[in-house]
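hey can u run this one w/ NDP bound, need the structure tokens asap thx
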Amino acid sequence: MPKLILITGATSGFGEAIARRFAADGWHVLLCGRRRDRLDALKRELEGLHGPMAHAVHLDVRDRGEVERTIAALPAEWAAIDVLVNNAGLASGLDPIQTGDVDDWERMIDTNVKGLLYVTRAVVPGMVARGRGHIINIGSTAGKEVYPKGNVYCATKHAVDALTKAMRIDLVEQGIKVTQVAPGAAETEFSEVRFHGDAARAKQVYAGFRPLSAEDVAGIVHYAATLPPHVCINDVVVTATAQANSTVIARR
Ligand code: NDP
Ligand code: 8X3
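ok here u go:
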């Protein structure tokens, strides 16, 4: 019986790479995100390669009602989720606290913290009932330290760090694994989203060094998800070799 993984934010970056990685390994993949065209294209692509093993659901993780309804309405063959990857997230803006855009702040808090909680709350009771499951939260080095102008984004990822530890405590008796993967700079659509579509500014973030790729992160998630039942990776901090911390990067 193939295992089932639900990935939030599967339309781009880490989430898309995670979907490809698990699909190639014979898993069934439940793809979630807001951009329907991309969800449908990825589902078609994966099914063309691997047969009928993908299901796409439109999901804005900020919409509590939509999250609850969508998870509750999953067809039986897509409901027994073995692994939940809470990946959907974003940075919006890079401004000092005194001039930060409150709409940016709300977008980040609603997505990175509240959205992660809504999805977790909807999925985990099924895992508890089945007596098995694995939650993998995508944190960040921004959840381990703070950097100039990172204020609210860093706070949301510190929340992911805290919630991962809290989930692990609450779910240990139920045999549910909880893992955080906390990457440093990785070249995806992340910086373009952070800079509100300014592709040239986004490119500068990765100039002069080789950042992580989405596939690098997907490989770590896959490794964590395929360890024996008695082994749980609690936390992984991973950066490019050229990145020492959020502000120290060897650029050539
Ligand atoms: P991308 O921008 O490439 O991907 C983000 C994904 O999140 C997209 O699939 C997007 O899908 C989805 N998403 C955003 N908002 C929502 C929402 N409200 N509801 C559902 N899905 C949503 O960035 P990354 O792949 O880099 O980011 C993935 C995660 O990794 C994020 O949590 C990010 O904070 C974290 N991260 C990124 C790092 C980096 O340097 N790239 C480093 C460390 C952590 P759609 O727009 O279709 O909804
Ligand atoms: C993404 C990495 O350094 O932009 O979480 O915060 S960083």
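Residues 140-142, 150, 184-185, 246 surround 2-hydroxyethylsulfonic acid (ligand 2) (CB under 6 Å). anyway lmk if its weird
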